[in-house]
Design brief:
By secondary structure, the chain is of the alpha+beta class. It has helices spanning about 20-35, 40-65, 75-85, 190-200, 210-220, 250-265, 300-320, 330-335, and strands at about 95-105, 110-115, 120, 125-130, 135, 140-150, 165, 175-180, 225-230, 235-245, 275, 280-295, 340-345, 355-370. The chain is about 30% helix and about 25% strand. β3 and β4 (about 125-130) form a beta hairpin.
Length: about 375
């Protein structure tokens, strides 16, 4: 949808018509007093004098209110509106050009070209070097950048060789000349250009370009989406893999909702082709044997329950996040935190899980080996 300020309706916040305001003041007075004010009546003339100031006040109120609207905002106000969308008015730019400084002959030591050395074409517009440079020993010339001393378009358009007069001479210098056409100078951005730029500034806001933005929009598709993986397997392609709460795989309807949420024209970059896929399940087994300390033998039953709970929590932890590696160290930590003294883990073994995969338990075997000395 194309947006244009011209398509926005004109608005007035208050009545500004002078004749209407005057008529209402006279009418209100006549109704309140029961007296008719004829032309020439001194009281009528007094009220009309007051009406002048009401008209001015109404116009000021209207103008002040309109400065909050992009369509009407003027100098000073429009900069504040632009700041709301991170759009800032472009200030005047200085024209730039490359200048060649040539010596009469090469020197045994370096010759400094000071920063700020000025050159000109007509003694009206001046250019100055932007950094200190040196013509090295044994060399006769150097080319360095200079910028116009005045911002704006005034410094543009000097052809090669036109800027050839030195204003700040130094030893052994024989000639100067510009080797490029001066360009890049610009006056301060006009209000109307700035107004149009503010209007389209939100177009620059990223919707679903970066990874985080695609994750955000994918999660808006359904409140039970717990995790999202976003990658670009090929140039111009975006692959989105959603995972539901508790590690449940999304069904086709969820995939469709994610696809719609991330493929809308106002969210997807035009060049992106969005693919939405289910996670791939990677099977693993649990086969462990654990022991408790004899000092905890009186609490053996509660520890066994705690271990069982810890293993179930590990199973959920393992599958509720895309790309989470199968990690037996995490299982050992969980079981020992639950009260086990020692844990022998036969399965699983460590395995790397890719961004589009989840680890899913296939078989489980838990053996309580009894109590033993510390």
């Amino acid at each position: 949808m194309s947006i244009s300020l011209e398509n926005l309706p004109n608005v007035d916040f208050v009545i500004k018509d002078a004749e209407k305001i005057k008529a209402e003041i006279i009418q209100d007075f006549e109704e309140a007093s029961g007296r008719t004010l004829y032309p020439g009546d001194p009281l009528r003339l007094l009220l009309l004098t007051f009406a002048k100031y009401f008209v001015l006040l109404q116009n000021n109120i209207d103008m002040s209110a309109k400065q909050n609207l992009l369509k009407y905002a003027e100098e000073g106000f429009i900069e504040n509106i632009g700041a709301l969308v991170s759009a800032f008015r472009k200030e005047a730019e200085n024209a730039k050009v490359f200048i060649e400084f040539k010596l009469s002959e090469s020197q045994e030591s370096s010759v400094i070209v000071p920063k700020g050395t000025r050159v000109t074409c007509d003694n009206k517009v001046y250019f100055q070097t932007t950094e200190e440079r040196e013509i090295k020993a044994g060399e006769k010339e150097i080319i360095t950048e200079a910028e116009c001393t005045e911002p704006g378009i005034i410094g543009n358009g000097y052809y090669e060789g036109q800027i050839n007069k030195i204003v700040d001479p130094f030893g052994y210098l024989v000639s100067v000349r510009n080797t490029t056409v001066s360009a890049g100078g610009a006056d301060r951005e006009s209000i109307e250009n700035f107004r149009e730029r503010i209007l389209i500034a939100p177009e620059s806001f990223s919707t679903a370009g970066p990874k985080g933005a695609y994750e955000y929009w994918a999660k808006t598709a359904n409140q039970d989406i717990y995790d999202v993986s976003v990658v670009s397997p090929n140039p111009g392609e975006v692959e989105i893999i959603p995972l539901m709460k508790n590690g449940v795989l999304p069904d086709e309807e969820i995939l469709k909702e994610v696809r719609l949420a991330c493929s809308a024209d106002d969210k997807r970059p035009l060049t992106d082709y969005v693919l939405v896929s289910k996670p791939k399940e990677i099977d693993y087994d649990i086969d462990i044997k654990y022991y408790i300390s004899k000092n905890d033998s009186t609490s053996g039953l509660s520890i066994q329950e705690s271990v069982s709970k810890a293993v179930n929590e590990f199973i959920l932890w393992q599958r509720e996040k895309l790309g989470r590696d199968i990690n037996p160290s995490k299982l050992i930590q969980s079981v020992m935190t639950a009260g086990a003294k020692r844990v022998d883990v036969l399965k699983p073994v460590y395995k790397k899980i890719e961004y589009n995969q989840i680890a899913v338990l296939k078989n489980i075997k838990i053996i309580y080996g009894g109590s033993e000395d510390d």
